[in-house]
Amino acid sequence: MRIAVVGGGIGGLCLAHGLRKAGLDVAVYERDLSRTDRLQGYRVHINPDGAAALRECLPAENWARFEQSSGTSANGFGFLTEQLKPLLVLDPDGEKHYSASRITLRQVLLDGLDVRFGKRFERYERDGAITLRFEDGTTAECDVLVGADGIGSRVREQYLPHAGTEEVGVVAVAGKLFVDDHDWVPRSLLDRANTIVPTSRCGMFLVNHDGLGYTDADGVLFDNVRPYLMWAYAANDPELREGLQETVLRRIAGWSPDLVRIVESSHPDTISQWRIRSSRPIERWESTNVTLLGDAIHAMTPMRGIGANVALRDAQLLARKLAESGIDGISAYETEMYDYGFAAVADSLRAARQFAEGSPFSRTLFRTVLRTAAAVPALKRAMF
Ligand SMILES: Cc1cc2nc3c(=O)[nH]c(=O)nc-3n(C[C@H](O)[C@H](O)[C@H](O)COP(=O)(O)OP(=O)(O)OC[C@H]3O[C@@H](n4cnc5c(N)ncnc54)[C@H](O)[C@@H]3O)c2cc1C
Q1: Least enclosed by CB within 10 Å: which of 26, 106, 230, 248?
Q2: pTM
Q3: pLDDT tens, residue by residue, 146-201
């Protein structure tokens, strides 16, 4: 059974390790030209489920490097007013969470794999075996094709053309404040992740990341090693297109001076914008020897911070099923993945709407619920 994975991202690379560990024949095809092509991006929060998948699939030395190079993520979670008054603070859950640089994670995942770079997948043909065609005119053969090619997946476009993503109307603007330059940032914003819940139709998320980098075997240092506070403002606001920093500052005028200063003091080069997308729900399809994982099948809004963790769960499950039952294992994988994957899509979409939309009345009500939960421990336990 020759397995081809299209897409060497978080899910595809984790799957390739899992398959190799199980002694299966796997090849990864990635459109990037080299392993250092995408040296940018924010950190990704790896929760205990994602960490368990990595631990199971990766060789021991890669897992050890992941642990060494990841910060432990700010644990605990706060809901605050725009004046930084606590509405509800959730204590750390006692489990280990990681804050991984995307760049570092990619290097850790690439170590030990022979990924074919510069292979931009175009389409496949199926006639018993599968022939993959790449934009450079080359082809490859396999018996199982896994589309792990992210939110714009070409494998999905051909295999499940009715599936796909749509904009949800929410726009996010994010930036980084390098905290080693700023000693005035309130401790409560550094010690845990926080969501600001104003009564107006918008929200802000802040999380602190410590400054670990990754040096590969040749001594090359990847990633910016400075610690930073990442903030993301989101709203259903068509004007959030240009002059991003100034527009956010206009929208949050009147918020806590510390929040205004965080946005004001962030270096303009760190400011970026995302138009949030989410997968359309689809009916369960009939399983074949082509399958999908991660964002390629269930892209979700980033408002729960779980997309990569669900992609890792897919990788772990698919590796197990292919190892146990060969091609027949794809159906069992898809049945399980369909349920938890699209549940995560729906949950993340709800979170995006709650974060960035809602009438002032419903937002005031939400704040009251949070305050009540803070005052009644049994309610807090039941809700969170
Ligand atoms: C702002 C933001 C913050 C986020 N934060 C978190 C977080 O904290 N925690 C979390 O769990 N999730 C987070 N996510 C979601 C997470 O980034 C994604 O869910 C995750 O990267 C999906 O992994 P994947 O392997 O499916 O796809 P990707 O990581 O996107 O990988 C796809 C790979 O396929 C390659 N590719 C694409 N097309 C082709 C082609 N035609 N041929 C060959 N190769 C191709 C790409 O180059 C890439 O390497 C966040 C997302 C955003 C936008």
Answers
A1: 230
A2: 0.92
A3: 999 999 999 999 999 999 999 999 999 999 999 888 899 999 999 889 999 999 99
Spatial CA neighbour of 11 closest among 215, 252, 313, 217:
313
CB–CB of 107/37 below 8 Å?
A: no
Dihedral in degrees, nearest 10, Cα atoms 117, 122, 125, 130: 20
> Between helices 48-57 and 307-325, what is the axis angle to 10°?
40
Kindly state if the Cβ of 314 falls inside 6 Å of ligand 1.
Answer: no
Q: How far is CA 259 from CA 200, 228, 238, 265, 269, in A?
A: 16, 15, 22, 10, 19
Pocket test for ligand 1, best of 97, 108, 149, 275 (most atoms within 8 A of CB): 149
Main-chain phi, psi angles of 329, to 5 degrees? -70, -15
Q: What residues does each domain of the chain span? A: 2-383
User: Is-contact 305 349, C-beta < 8 A?
Assistant: no
Using CB atoms within 10 Å of the CB of residue 381, give its burial: 0 to 12 exposed, 13 to 18 middle, 19+ buried: exposed
CA distance 245 to 272: 9
3-state secondary structure 142-193: ECEEEECCCCCCHHHHHHCCCCCEEEEEEEEEEEEEEHHHCCCCCHHHHHCE
Question: Could you report the per-residue pLDDT of 302-350, keeping only the tens digit for each?
Answer: 999 899 999 999 999 999 999 999 999 999 999 999 999 999 999 999 9
**Spatial distance between the Cα atoms of 147 and 110, rounded to a whole number of angstroms:** 18
Query: Closest Cα partner for 280 from 294, 306, 299?
Result: 299
69: CA distance to ligand 1 center in Å?
Answer: 20
Indicate the top mutation candidate among 17, 44, 355 to test ligand 1's pocket, ranked by most ligand atoms within 8 A of CB: 44
